[in-house]
Write a structure and sequence with these properties.
The complex is a heterodimer of chains A (306) and B (326).
Chain A: H1 2-18, H2 21-31, H3 33-50, H4 52-55, H5 87-123, H6 125-140, H7 143-157, H8 161-174, H9 178-191, H10 195-202, H11 207-243, H12 255-260, H13 265-270, H14 276-299
Helix pairs in contact in A: 2-14, 3-5, 3-14, 5-6, 5-8, 5-9, 5-11, 6-9, 9-11, 11-14
Chain B: E1 4-17, E2 20-33, E3 37-41, H1 48-55, E4 64-73, E5 76-77, H2 83-89, E6 94-97, H3 111-122, H4 127-140, H5 146-149, H6 159-171, E7 177-181, H7 189-206, E8 209-214, H8 217-223, E9 226-231, E10 234-240, H9 241-246, H10 251-258, H11 298-302, E11 308-309, E12 315-316
Parallel strand pairs in B: 3-8, 3-9, 6-7, 7-8
Antiparallel strand pairs in B: 1-2, 1-4, 4-5, 9-10, 10-12, 11-12
Helix pairs in contact in B: 3-4, 3-6, 4-6, 6-7
Classes of the chains: A mainly alpha (306), B alpha/beta (326).
Amino acid sequence: MSTTANVTANTKVKKMKSDSLWRSAFRRLRKNKMAMLGFFILIFMFLFSFIGPYLSPYLDAKISVRDANKPPSAEHWLGTDKLGRDMLLRLMEAGRISLLVGIVATSIIVIIGGTIGALAGFYGKWVDTLFMRFADIMYAIPTLPILITLGAIFSDLKVPPDSRIYYVMFIIGIISWMGLARLVRSQILSLKEQEFMLANEVLGIRDRRKIFRHLLPNTIPIIIVSATLWVANAILLESALSYLGLGVIPPTPSWGQMLSTANNMIDFKMRPWLWIPPGVCILLTVVSINFIGDGLRDALDPKQKR
Amino acid sequence: MANTLLEFRNLKTYFYTEAGVVKAVNDVSFSIREGETVCVVGESGCGKSITAMSLMRLIPSPPGKIEGGEILYQGKDLLKLKDGEMRMLRGNEISMIFQEPMTSLNPVLKIGEQIMEPLIEHKFLSKREARQKAIELIEQVGIPRAAEIVDAYPHELSGGMRQRIMIAIALSCDPKLLIADEPTTALDVTIQAQILDLLRRLKQERNMSLMLITHDLGVVAEMADYVVVMYAGKVIEQAPVKEIFKNPRHPYTKGLLKAKPIIGQRTTRLYNIPGMVPNPIGLGDNCHFSDRCEHCMEICLTKQPQLKEDANGSKVACWLYEGEGA
């Protein structure tokens, strides 16, 4: 009798401590097998890309034409490319760039989209009209043509390859914040009518605090979900750009750019080790991020609480 | 006698709807003295809450508009203040709590963070000082384990506890006036009594004024020093609490008191005032209560009675008492 009482008391204490919004969402996420699988694949991808290169014996290797276009072997697990570079190492280094592009571009999208959406939703009236019509205009511009134009401009301006990748991140960011801005705006519109916002008004809290401390945190679940999906999108967009020769240019590798080196018939037919691994990496990363995003959407859905 | 803290003078708040103009608050005047509890009573839609919202300058505009009158707080007209000055008063000198404790707290912020906010905003405390003060406040509103509750989220607390937290937040900056808009309506009876006790205790400790909006005459009897009865946007009677209960004058007030169940007296059916609250759109020049009034006279149908003070210090707006007193 007393032991059961003890047990219930114990669980109660535990619950009291652990039941924040985030923890309970995380608990639900852990039950989602696909999301957890995606999570582990993604972690593996990060370790592979960021730590993997240091374990490679070819880190300081020079280009050697003698070893060019070798198929997978014991020394070169994934073979070598036409300059004799180890494909596994290149795949890892390309992963850094691709993941970085995904994350940085998404951060830019979240910052721009979140701020504009919050301001438009909170102030309404002309501020709303201004920002949202601007978003409509941005929406109306087709993505690829503008990227191709910008890519051509970069080539003409002879932007050095190293910094070119940052421009790519930035451009992906500023041409795709609109969806998130609309999402955040619609959330804020309904949130600001909630009673706790009236309570804030009565307490004389200033607008900045109301937006950034009270309203935006309430939209974080939605922002997270759409951001994860944007990471995947940005990686794909960067791959597309690089494949078209507009994104990252050699010698900097990225998965998309590695794919594009296999754009001739000989490489495509005779040397599949050049293009299958980067393709698989893109596929795995994007699919696992999408699984995580899906899982997060379910886990953070307030309607199915507990 | 204590000084007047707040005075409504001929306040008029109208709402412009498609169907017509709603005179939600029509020529309301009364005052609140320092340390006094004033109860505003009346049935739903009589303008109690709108009066309070006008005071806080939170009337949604459009469709609402404060058409006239003054709200004097320590001699300053609140309606003429700039938005920034008004913001500094809100939560700092005048605070308010609402009916719904369940939705009045932000679900994603910890309790402590929400109590700290007005302290940081108005009293310029550092985070550490504010947190310390928050723990003290949680203790003062009678919640045990304050040090743990600071880090709890709103959904972990019950309705009564949340209302206590709302009170803690409202009182964090030691306001001179607290407006409580039906603070106990959403709570069950035992918790109601506790919350009212708490309000009364805190009010006495701080010599704060309390404007209590309610439709529960039991609450009025327990809490009020002075009572303002509103009907259809107008004050129809105002008097010290004892006077209202012992010697109600306006037929509406009498009706309200008769409609209240008395413990120990079994009646088959409670009294109810005949008729319905009039449609607030297009009210005429008659006494708005005339069509429900047992004592309706000819003059009631053509002219509106004015609020007149009588010998006992209570004020009533009714033709029955015309010519008495003043």
